[in-house]
Amino acid sequence: IMYGSFVSTSVAREKDNRTMEILITSTKPDALIVGKVLANGVAGLVQFAFIFSVALIGYFLNQASFPEIVNEMLFGSLTWDAILVFLMFTSLGYLLYLFVYASLGSLVSKLEDVSSSVSVVTMLFMVAYLMANLGLSMPNSLIIKIASYFPFTAILSMPIRYFLTQVSIIELLISLAIMAITTWSLAIFSIRIYRFGSLSYGNKMSLI
Fold first, then answer.
1. Most CB atoms within 10 A, among 16, 96, 113, 136?
2. What is the C-alpha to C-alpha distance for residues 116 and 104, in angstroms, rounded to an integer?
3. Which residues contact 110 (CB under 8 A, 6 or more apart)?
């Protein structure tokens, strides 16, 4: 959410101060928006990796001080395939949300309108978070199974299902394929919105 807000704010700021008009004269709009998404995406992943590395080092330095139940809870059932599933869905879903934030940022003409514009996608991510919490207690429920195929909630629901239940490779591949196609489609859609939004000033635009 934080880095998605950075993307939408960056796009809206360039549009608000008319910097975008200068940029699009020498650079293609698709290169600009993809560059913003990837730059903020990489920055977020680097920060996540740094925090995770510090936490991991701190854990191993103090491992003897933790109760055995904590060690078992953290690493007892953690496998390499579970880590891979988590990384794949998190990275792809992260990219999906960044493109949505970028397109919403290009819909506004004033910087102060960004928060209201991105509130919908922020609420959508909160729904995904609530679904993941529900999946912790009911991983085999129908609603969690459906959520694990819906791209905006699969980012959290499918890894939860994989950690707690038996999920076939076919199910994983289908969910990943749906998310990848949705991400690609949204990237193209975001580029078109950005291209159109870069020439539209005054009133806040809408997707409908």
1. 96
2. 10
3. 12, 16, 204
Distance between CA atoms of residues 77 and 90, nearest Å: 19
DSSP tag of 65: G
Buried-state track 59-75, b at ≥16 Cβ within 10 A, e below 16: eeeeeeeeeeeeeeeee
pLDDT digits over 25-39, tens only?
777 777 888 888 888
Closest CA to 190 of 27, 11, 6, 41: 11
Helix axis angle, 119-137 to 80-105, nearest 10° = 160
* b/e 116-145 (16+ beta carbons within 10 angstroms → b): ebbeebeeebeebeebbebbeeebeeeebb
Amino acid at 92: L
Q: Give first-to-last CA distance, the chain, whole Å.
A: 23
Element (H, E) at 64: none
Sign of the dihedral through C-alpha 8, 14, 15, 17: positive
> Which residues, in sequence order, are CB contacts of 122 under 8 Å at separation 6+?
1
Give the chain's largest Cα–Cα span: 62
